[in-house]
Design goal:
six-stranded mixed beta sheet, globular, alpha+beta, seven-stranded mixed beta sheet, 13 strands
Length: 225
Amino acid sequence: MKVISYNLRKHRAAGELEELVVEHEPDILCLQECDVSELRDDIGGLALADATHGNRLGLAVYYRTNTFQLQDLRTFGLKKSLHDRMLKPAHERVLGVRLRDIDNGRELIVASFHAAPLTALNSLRRNQIRSALTELETMGRGLPVLMVGDYNYPVFKENLGQTVRDHGYTLTLSDDRTYTRYRVFKGHYDFATSNGFAIDSIQTLPQKSSDHRPILVTASVGTSV
């Protein structure tokens, strides 16, 4: 299974999506900072499962309909940062879908996630990540879970990795930095947390019009590594 996650930088990179999907042939596409009112129902053969509706810029998930059947979808609000309370940019920070593999009948959960911005404390983002994973588990007890997106966590990942492991999940970074536009903030922002998946690779794709680089996750259902 191949999953692409991409922060569109306030929808600026939306025009790249068709080419991105055609070139890399993902089974699932997870977006952050997309203008939900401008989203297409289909991108390169992937169907829109759903998008968040609580704010103009939000999350979306697309999936390949000849591979998966959509079983359930949910959005979740998480603990708010001061930035969220004052500017109200995003209430829903997780969009999860439960999918059934048409060929083998297995079900799995994949989610698009966008953590609070860098103005918030890392402790709050860790709280958001734990809460997001807990909420996703309610969509199907015991099902494999893969959450990808913009974690806004460029430094001190050891603490985050331990938090994720304590929760029973694996934190996996991509093969290169995903945010490179501003020297002071360079680092890995976009990555994956998983349980019940074997992550074969996470490739950082070339940067174009977004301030984030998309990541391509190749994974299979199995024991987390």
